[in-house]
Design a protein that fits this description.
The complex is a heterodimer. Chain A is mainly alpha-helical. Chain A has 12 helices and 4 strands; from the N terminus they run H-H-E-H-E-H-E-E-H-H-H-H-H-H-H-H. Chain B has 1 helix and 7 strands, in the order ββββββαβ. Classes of the chains: A mainly alpha, B mainly beta. Strand 3 of chain A pairs antiparallel with strand 7 of chain B, so a sheet runs across the interface.
Amino acid sequence: MQLGELQSQIDRFSARGGSVIALSVDPPAHSTAMVRRLGLSFVIASDQNQAVQKAFRVQNPDTNELALHAVYIIDETRRIFYRKVAGRRPLSQELLDAIDFEFGRYPMNDEAGKYAGTPVAFPRNNFQALLNVSLVDSLPESLDEKRLREVVDLIANRRLDDATIAYRRYMSEVAERVGKNDLLDGAAWLATQAVSLPDDARLAGKALNQALVEQRSLPADISDEAKAATDRHLETVRSMIRSNANVWRLASLKTTLRGYRELSLAAVRSVDAE
Amino acid sequence: MLIICLGLGVTGMVIASDAPRYKPLSRAEPVDISTAAYGASPLAPRALSIGEIAPDFTVATVSGMAISLSDFVVDGPVVIVFYRGHW
């Protein structure tokens, strides 16, 4: 879970009477720039002496300084009713669902976006994103090509971690004012640029994953039969992607993307036509 | 939530709707997130778990102000995020 993503959903937490406290070992002043850049309105605090991470027992075993990424949700008695330590990072929708379930409101008829951004069951929540992902040659006008070219340059210089940070930082900055489809096209454009570079499609894969987990909505009118059909097809394509994971050839990635999109569209059309 | 009221003085039996189910890892099957097993990690086998009481703590915000967890819980649920930092 990125703090920027959390910020984009903060109103939904507030609507439930919830608040957020984010902790790291960074000294208070060290986080000021990040707070300003991401426009964070929730509490960012310093656990510089690691007392809190030790009390929760979420120290990172690989380093003596950092905590594992972890999320806890507590009630008014400080009783824990949700936790996620390491592993796949939860997005806001999961946390909101946990709160709603705890207080007997799940599933919530939330106009703000019930399916926002979380691969609850991978096929359903990512279906729309995967339909949208294609090989995009031109960047949407709402996105800053200069900023994304900087990411491409970082990839070219094999600074992949810096590229990932720069990419996610920019996407967090624009997430609130740029439409979902443009965000997905931006990720796909980046993937297209990245796969044009020799020898490495790893960031292309990361960019695609970012698009997949940040998709915002599911088509409201998709039938249950279509969902089931796309589940089957999606599982097939997931197997295709996994089988390519260790052989990140550019051509394979393009083929996978194109094949996935066509399979998904065909599945929906065939079922809805019945 | 479906509430079935039986006769003979038996109070209502509540059948809860399915709990939210999410994947703990990208390739895992969805799991009920209200269970302790969902959020566990072998990297932190002794991490505080569901049902336990979180310790109160006082920390400094980016503005230097001291805040306590106990000040926040009175208003509703509190999401506590441990993030890596060192950005």
